[in-house]
Amino acid sequence: MVATTHTSACPLDCPDLCSLRVEVEDGKVVKVDGDERGPITDGFVCGKVRNIADHLYGEHRILTPLLRVGAKGEGRFRAASWDEALTVVADRLRAIRDDHGGEAILPFHYGGSNGWLTEGGLATRFFRRLGASRCLRTLCAAPSSEAVRGLYGQVPGVGLEDYPAAKLIVVWGCNPSASGIHLVPIIERAVAAGATLIVVDPRRTPLARLATLHLAVRPGTDLPIALALHRELFARGAADATFLATHCTGVDALRARAEPWTLARAAEVGGVDPADLARFVDLYAAASPAVIRCGWGVERNRNGGSAVAAILALPAVAGKFGVRGGGYTMSNGDAAWGISPEPGIAEPEPATRAINMTQLGTALADTAAPVRALFVYNCNPTQTVPDQAAVLRGLARDDLFTVVHEQVMTDSCRWADVVLPATTFLEHREVRRGYGAMRLYDSPAVAPAPGLAWSNHQLFGALLTRLGLDRAGDPRSEDEVVAAIFADDRDGHLRAQLTARQVAAPLLPTPRLFVDVMPGTADGKIDLCPAALDAVAPHGLYHYQPDPATAAFPLALISPAIAQQISSTFGQLRRAPATVELAAADAAARGITDGDTVRIWNALGEIVCGARVARHLRPGVAVLPKGTWRFHTANGSAATAVVSQALTDLGGGPCYNDARVEIARVAATAPQ
C-alpha cells in the first residue's frame, strides 16, 4: 500500500509544540519527523516522538474496555464492550451522585500533554454538570503561574526564537536537553556568536558544560541566591532607578527583603562560591540584551513560588526590558491569543469543593467527606503524585469506584474497576497552543485508532447523554466545540491561518515588553512585591524556609525529566532498570560503587534500585528520574514514595525536590 503523508503537531508536555510530518501506511503510523511550519521545530523532533509507533502499537496498548475481575492492584480484567462498560460507569456515577452528592466524585486529570478538545471540552462539561469535586491541577506550574501573574499579569515573555539576539542568556532550573530540545541549538548558536551563558542547576547539565558560569546550587536555595543578586544590584547602583520609578511598584519592599542576603550568606546557604555570585552580577549588569530562561525545577520546593518571583524580578530591577531578546521566559501559553477553551466547555465552573491533586492520598483517606468515585484521565497518579504509599492505600479501598481512561496499561490502571481505551493525539483531532513557541495548531486525526480506543470527546459525549446532562444548543461535535472556542477570534486571523496551514500565530508572536505590550496588571506596572502573594505565602513573599534535611536524612533526592521521558508517558518503553545517581563523595562515604543495589528511604517510604556514581552532581544531591513505572525498581516504588504531601509557598504545588533521604548499599550486582 502506498504511504500517505500528513501534517500534525505534538501536544506532549514540552514548550516546543513541534510541527510534525507523519507517514501512514496500511492504517498505521510508520514514520514521524518534524516539518518547517513551526518557528523552532526546524525539521527535527525528539526521539520520544520519532519512535512513537512503539507506543501506538506496542504490547501495552489497551484495545478494548476492561472490567476488573481480581483484587484491586492485581491488574486482572476481562474484556467488555463499550456498551457494557459505559452502563457500569454511568450507573455507578449516577448512584453515587444521587446517594452522596456530586462532590463524592473526583475527576483526576492533569492534561499537560493535551489540548482544548481532550483536556477541556466535553470532559470538563460533564464533570461540571455532574456537580463533581474540582481537581486543582497543581503538579506543575502552579507556583510559577501565581508568581508570574502576581508580578506581571498575563503577558508573554521573550519568544524562544528571539534568544539569538541576547548577549547574555541565563538558564535557571531548566534542562532543555531533556525537556525542550529545540532551545539547545538556538543557545548554542548564540554562544558561538559571542553570547555569555550562565546556568543555575544542581547538576552539570549539557548546557552547564557549555556555560561561562555554572552555579551548582543546593536544591531549594534558589530564593536566597536570587535575593542576593538583587541586593548586590541595588548596592552597586546597577539597578535601573529610572525604569523602577516609572514602571514598577513594590520596589522598596523587594529591596528590604533582599537586604539580609549578602553574597556571602547566600553562597553559604546555596553551597556556591561567593565570587561566582559576584561574577553573575558583573555579567548580568553589563549585558544587554539579557534574557533569563526560568524552568519549572525552581518551583518544586517549599520556597518555589517566592524563588520564581525573585528570579523573574531580576530583569525589572536591572532594566533589561524593551529590547529584543531582553527580559525573561517562563510560560507563554495563556498570553496573546484572545481565545480560551471555556466557550467550548459551555458550562460555568461550579462552586463545588476543590481537591488539590498533590494531596490525593489525604483526599482518599478522608472519612468525613469521602471520595467515592475517582475518574482518572490524562494522568498516572500512582507514579506521579507525592506520597505514593498514601495514594496506593486510597486506591485499594473496596468502597472506591475507580475508572481509568488510558492509552496503555499504566500502573494506575491496575487499581481500576473499569479501564477504558483512549486514543493518542495522532488518532484524534486536537487544538493546542504552545507554552514556549507562540503557535497554535488544529490537527486532525492522521491514523485510525487501534482496537476500540475512544477519544475523550467520544467518551464524555456518551456519558453526557447517558446521564441526561445534554442541553439544547450545546456545541457537541468536534467542529461545533472548535467553532465555539474561536468565536472570540473577532477578525478571524487565527481561523484563516489554521484553514491555510493548520497552524496560527498571534498578531505579535514575539512581543517585547514595554514596546509591543505592557504588563497585564491592573495598573500596567510590574509589582515586585504583590500584596496578594505576600498574604498567602506562609511567612510572606520572599521568606526563605530552611533546608528540611536532618542528620538521619541528609541527601536531597531530586527527580528531573530525562531525554526519554518528561513525565510518566512512554515509561513502558524504557526497559532499563532505574538507577539513582550519587555524587562521588556521597557514594564513597557510603561504600557505594557503580552497579550496587541500594535502598533509598525516609519516614514515608523506600525505593530499592541500582546505583551509579555521577561526575555531574554536587555533593548532597541524588537523582532518580521522574516517570518510573513499578517494573523499573526492585520494590515497585517511584521517587514519589519519599516525597511528602507538603505544598509550595504559592500555588499549592508539590515539593518534589524537598525529599530528604538516606541511601545505603544493600547488595552488590552479581558478576556477569
Descriptive notes:
The protein is of the alpha/beta class. It folds into 4 domains: 4-56, 2-Layer Sandwich (Phosphorylase Kinase, domain 1), CATH 3.30.200.210; 66-132 and 338-433 and 440-504, Rossmann fold (3-Layer(aba) Sandwich); 143-333 and 512-536, Dimethylsulfoxide Reductase, domain 2; 555-667, Barwin-like endoglucanases (Beta Barrel), CATH 2.40.40. 29% of the residues lie in helices and 18% in strands. The strands form 7 sheets. A 6-stranded mixed beta sheet has the order 5-4-17-16-15-6, with helices on one face. Helix 9 packs across helix 11 (251-258) and helix 9 packs parallel to helix 14 (304-317). It is globular, with a radius of gyration of 25 Å. The model has no long low-confidence stretch (mean pLDDT 95).
| CATH level-1 class of the largest domain | Alpha Beta
What is the CA-atom radius of gyration, in angstroms?
Answer: 25 Å
CATH topology of the largest domain: Rossmann fold
Kindly report how far apart the N and C termini lie. 46 Å
Q: Report helical residue fraction.
A: 25-40%
Q: Can you summarize the main beta sheet?
A: 6 strands, mixed
How much β-strand is present in the residues? 15-25%
Helix tally equals 23
Structural class: alpha/beta
Low-confidence stretches: none
Taken from the alpha-carbon principal axes, the silhouette is: globular
CATH architecture of the largest domain: 3-Layer(aba) Sandwich
Q: What is the residue-averaged pLDDT?
A: 95
Overall strand count: 27
Strand order in space, largest sheet: 5-4-17-16-15-6
Number of domains: 4
